[in-house]
Amino acid sequence: MAENDWWKKSVVYQVYPRSYQDSNGDGIGDLPGLTSRLPYIKDLGADVIWLNPIYKSPDKDNGYDISDYRNIQPAYGTMDDFDNLLQEAHVLGLKIMMDLVVNHTSDQNKWFQESKKSKDNRYRDYYVWRDPVDGHAPNNWGSYFNGSTWKFDETTGQYYLHLFAEGQPDLNWENPQVRDEVWNVMKFWLDKGVDGFRMDVINLISKPTGLPDGQKAPDGKYADVGKVVADGPRLNEFLQEMNQKVLSKYDVMTVGEMPDSTPDDAIKYTGLDSHELNMVFQFDHVGLAGNDDPRLGKWSDKKVNLVELKQSLSKWETELNGKGWNSLYWNNHDQPRTVSKFGNDDPKYRDKAAKMLGTTLHMMQGTPYVYEGEELGMTNVHYKKLSQYEDLESLNAYREFVDDEKIIDKDSMLKYLSARSRDNARTPMQWDNNKNAGFTSGKPWFELNPNYTEINARNQIENQSSVFAYYKKLIELRHNSDLIIYGDYELLDPEDEEVFTYKRRYNDETLLVISNFTDKELTRDYNQSAGKLLIGNYDDDRNMELRPYESKVYLFK
Ligand code: GLC
Ligand code: CA
């Protein structure tokens, strides 16, 4: 084993700072607020905190549109607050991983402000500008956030490229100056002592030569841009340059967010000899249960099929084994809440289902990520009205599908938003059952989930049978087991539609993980009685019997 592979043994806790803890009553979470909560994260047992973007930003996409890479968003605090956070975290033995958003900037970034002034501005080539073709956009690419990826700019009569929102113009990575700027930004933060980067949509930075049209989605107006742009021709080269010029000089952890990547791609980026990244976030399992109508993509309220879920997660486990490294996650700030999507958020079952999902993921090979509130079993918020939503992806999709193209009626779209909107993850953290769940003394920037009176940290911290206590135990088990960290993975009974069972093997030890994904009483015989129960989400072990959402882990020596 490589010596500096601490990131393989770590558990990461993701903080969405806007919704974590407000310290000054303006209703917005901030850095001093987060600093005050570090002991909670330490208590959970996490090793690393991934911080969503905290840089200066007009917040069109909640910080994923950066206008100044070297300054802190004023609502979150000052650079002193950041330095203090980093120092306090390090004192507690917690590492901090920053979000690096360099596929695009904000249109308010100085580089773009200059770039759009004239065709001969020295920053012109920092972005992707093209002439109109027959009076239209240069190609048929459709943005991740709906509409074309091209925006016409009157001043110079050219279009600029934006894979995401109009306010998020794509950087031109073909330009070596752009790459140098990025390396310098990275060094700025690494020299402060940050411990790594989560790299936003990093597999989209190398655009295909000539920017060719893509294949149009069935009946759609535009081509799915991910299919054309992901894993482009110079991606490996760019990542190797990044590694050589920056990453290799520091002992840090890196994870690349990679929509549309395959295990083969991931092996290229995270392979032992590739000198690129440590691990990737793949999207296969979170992309399951999309709409039958391909135009609607992720917008659906279908339940995930367990056979497909097992196949998807197992493919990554087996294909990367010994060749690359997995990241393990159920949710993040872009996904609905774990227990609502993959389990059951009915009050009768949610506690068991949350623990069952935690077990299933944390016993796999890879680095687990816990998204704030997941350790409490926080659920989707289930808003009823469009006006309650805030996220531009949700609002744009509603406008396009309901108002403009009339593909779908209002009530169905509201159901889909309730099941899949990113806003489900962004409601404030539920600390206690005081006003606003202890998140703020002011007016929260975003409506809270009313179930905070029942689901909150204070209720759970002291309670030995809480979801929090259970996650703590899962993390502790991993910290003390090479079997859990390095063991080989084998899926059992892939066709079982109700139970997810797998084994891990390392030297002479075997781990058996059995999870009932249904609300039914079932029986499964895996010779459980010969093993030692390491953890389970019911008080007693009934051997072959599986109660609703029951999950158990056995060790065989
Ligand atoms: C990533 C982020 C998401 C953001 C997008 C554009 O997918 O996780 O929140 O909207 O990139 O930056
Ligand atoms: Ca604040």
CATH superfamily of the largest domain: Glycosidases
What is the overall silhouette? globular
Supply the number of helical segments: 17
Number of domains: 4
CATH architecture of the largest domain: Alpha-Beta Barrel
Question: What does this 3D model show about the protein?
Answer:
The chain has 557 residues and is an alpha/beta fold. The chain folds into four domains: 8-92 and 335-383 and 421-480, Glycosidases (TIM Barrel); 110-161, Oligo-1,6-glucosidase, Domain 2 (Oligo-1,6-glucosidase, domain 2, Alpha-Beta Complex); 176-284 and 287-328, Alpha-Beta Barrel (TIM Barrel), CATH 3.20.20.80; 488-556, Golgi alpha-mannosidase II (Immunoglobulin-like, Sandwich). 28% of the residues lie in helices and 16% in strands. The protein is built from 17 helices and 22 strands. The two termini are 23 Å apart. The model has no long low-confidence stretch (mean pLDDT 96). It binds alpha-D-glucopyranose and calcium ion. Calcium ion binds at residues 22-24, 26, 28, 30. Keywords: Cytoplasm, Glycosidase, Hydrolase.
Please specify the SSE layout and strand pairing.
Elements: E1 12-15, H1 31-36, H2 38-44, E2 48-51, E3 55-56, E4 68-72, H3 79-91, E5 95-100, H4 110-115, E6 129-130, E7 141-142, E8 150-153, E9 158-161, H5 176-192, E10 196-199, E11 223-224, H6 225-229, H7 235-245, E12 253-257, H8 263-270, E13 279-281, H9 306-320, E14 327-328, H10 338-342, H11 350-362, E15 367-371, H12 392-404, H13 410-420, H14 423-426, H15 457-461, H16 467-479, H17 482-486, E16 488-492, E17 499-506, E18 509-516, E19 522-523, E20 532-536, E21 545-546, E22 551-556
Parallel strand pairs: 1-2, 1-15, 2-5, 5-10, 7-11, 10-12, 12-13, 14-15
Antiparallel strand pairs: 3-4, 6-9, 8-9, 16-17, 17-18, 18-22, 19-21, 20-22
Helix pairs in contact: 8-9, 11-16, 12-13
The chain binds alpha-D-glucopyranose and calcium ion.
Calcium ion is lined by residues 22-24, 26, 28, 30.
GO biological process, one term: oligosaccharide catabolic process
Keywords: Cytoplasm, Glycosidase, Hydrolase
InterPro entries: GH, GH13_cat_dom, Glyco_hydro_b, O16G_dom_2
